[in-house]
Amino acid sequence: MNQSFVKPIVLVVLSAALAACGAAKREHAMFMSDSRNTGFHATKDIVDGATEIWSFQSGGAGFSTPVVISGRLYVGSNDGNMYAFDATSGKRLWTYKAEGKIESSPAVFKGVLYFGSWDRHIYALNADDGTLLWRYKTGSQVYGSPTVFGSSVFIGSLDKHMYAFNATTGELQWRFGSTGAIYSSPAVDGGNVYFGADDGFVYAVDVLTGQMVWRFGTKKPIYSSPAIEKNTVLIGSDDRFMRALHGATGRELWRFRTGNKISSTPAIFSNQVVFGSTDGYVYLVSRAGGRKTWEFKTYGAIFASPFLTERIAYISSNDGSIYALSLESGEQLWKKELGVQLFASPVVDNGVLYIHDNEGKLTALK
Hints:
The protein starts with 6 loop residues before the first helix and ends with a strand. It is mainly beta and 366 residues long. Helix content is 4%, strand content 44%.
C-alpha cells in the first residue's frame, strides 16, 4: 500500500475531482459515464430512429461496452484486442493485443486507457497510440470495468479482490479481499468505493486505505454494478430486487422487486432510476422511495445497462433490439432491430449511438 498520502489533503483533491465531474469539458470516459456509474451524459439525442453509418467486425463476441471521448471510440473484444476508432468515420486508429478475452469496458482518463482481461491482467495504454504504459497481474480473470477517480484506478477481479492502483505508475495502493468473485464494476463517492460480488454482498471500502466500511447481504450473487446519487447506493441482485442503500452506513432504504434476476446496472438522472431485468422489462422508479413511474416490456432478457440523456433512456435487449424510451412517460420513441443478442450497453455521443453485439460487430447508428 502506498503510505505517502496525507488523508485530509487527498480528500480535498478527491472532492475537487468529484466537482470536476460536472464540468462541461470531459476529460474522462468510462463504463456508465462517470465514477459514480450514473449512466448519464448530456449530449445530442437520436429522436427519429437510427440508420447505420459505419460498422466494424471483430474476431470475437462483443461484451465490452464502448466509450467515446474527444472524437475517438475505444472498445474491447473477445478476440483479445482493444480497438481505437475515429468515432465519426469508423477508421481504425490502432489495435492492442492482450493475451485473453476483453469483456471489460475501457476507461479513459487524461490520455490513458485502462481495462482488464481474461488473461488476469489490468492494462494501462497510451490512448493516442495504444502503447503499453503498465500492466498488473491479478489472481484470476478480470471481467469488470475500471473506474478512475482522483489519481487512482479501481477494478475488481474474479480472484475475489478489489484493487486500487496509482493511475500513472501502476503502483498497487491497496487490495481488498471479499468472499466472492467480483464481476461488478466499482463506483466511487463520498470517500468510499462500492461494488458487489457473487457472494451476495454489497461492499463499501475506504477509498484511501481499502478497509471495509460496511457490507450488506442479499443472499444471491450480484453481477450488477452500483450507481450513486446523493449518498444513495443503487444496485441490483440475482434475488430480483433493486435496492437503495445508505452510502455511509449500508442501511437498506428501500427495495423494488422485479420478475427475475437483475444484472443491469441502474442509471440515474434527476432523481429517477432506470434499469432492466432479465424479466424483459425496463423500469423507472424514484430514487427517494423506489416508487414505480413506468415499466416497458421488451421481448428478451435484459443484461445491458441503460444510457440516459435529459430526455431519453437507451437500452438494448436480448431480443436483438435497441430501444429509445421517453424518460418522462416510458413511451417507445423508436426501436432498432439488429437481430442478434445484445449484452453490451448502448452509448450515445453527439447524436450517434454505438453498440457492440454478441457476434462481434460494432455499429454506429445515426
